[in-house]
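User: Design a sequence. Structure:
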């Protein structure tokens, strides 16, 4: 029988499933990735749908409230994700990836991070342009800060709309690249974003 101390040491050395290793993403990074990805796609669809609602539609006020509330929660999740990323560095690229693919992936991931924040900040500037705070599902309020930009609601609205379209286009490219790695190259790029490879 193995001495008890040796078993304890082996367990201590086994990498935690929660954290990234050099070869795969950990559960926390995976949860952040798929929760934010789902929320962003949902926010995009909801955003497009709600702009077409008439004043008399029962969802006319409720849909923007839900859109704003989820937007604030995604912002909080993204700040937490970035902080977590400092303590839990990303895995090394999949060994079969070419140099240009690694560089392209870095650029696309950087665009996704920057785009997400830019979309969320412009959304905040639309919602708070008239000095009103954002109520997040009635749980807490995010106060207005900047209200002095000329035609703030219109300018931020225009920026928010086009940045959201750009973000979804980049996310679609990113998803296609992940699928190309999975289906054509048959490597572990997509599988390891579900933590098992
Ligand atoms: C709006 C939707 C999405 C956003 C905003 C998004 C964002 C990101 C970001 C920022 C990263 C880099 C993570 C980091 O370095 O910390 C990443 C990685 C990844 N994403 Fe997405 N993503 C989205 C949708 C998708 C979809 C639909 C797929 C699959 C079909 C996918 C597959 C992957 C994979 C496989 C990685 C890991 C790449 C690697 O290991 O180098 N993503 N994503």
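Assistant: Done.
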């Amino acid at each position: 029988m193995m001495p008890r101390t040796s078993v304890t040491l082996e367990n201590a050395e086994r990498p935690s499933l929660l954290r990234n290793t050099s070869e795969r993403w950990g559960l926390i990074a995976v949860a952040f990735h798929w929760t934010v990805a789902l929320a962003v796609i949902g926010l995009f669809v909801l955003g497009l749908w709600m702009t077409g609602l008439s004043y008399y539609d029962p969802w006319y006020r409720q849909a923007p409230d839900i859109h704003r509330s989820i937007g604030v929660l995604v912002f909080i999740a993204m700040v937490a994700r970035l902080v977590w990323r400092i303590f839990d560095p990303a895995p090394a690229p999949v060994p079969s990836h070419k140099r240009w693919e690694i560089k392209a992936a870095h650029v696309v991931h950087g665009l996704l991070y920057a785009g997400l924040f830019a979309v969320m900040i412009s959304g905040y500037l639309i919602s708070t342009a008239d000095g009103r705070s954002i109520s997040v599902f009635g749980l807490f309020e995010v106060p207005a800060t900047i209200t002095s930009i000329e035609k703030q609601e219109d300018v931020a609205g225009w920026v928010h709309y086009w940045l959201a379209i750009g973000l979804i286009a980049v996310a679609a490219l990113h998803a296609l690249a992940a699928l190309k790695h999975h289906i054509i190259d048959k490597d572990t790029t997509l599988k390891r974003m579900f933590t098992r490879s």
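Strands lie at 134-136, 140-142. Residues 1-9 have pLDDT under 50 and may be disordered.
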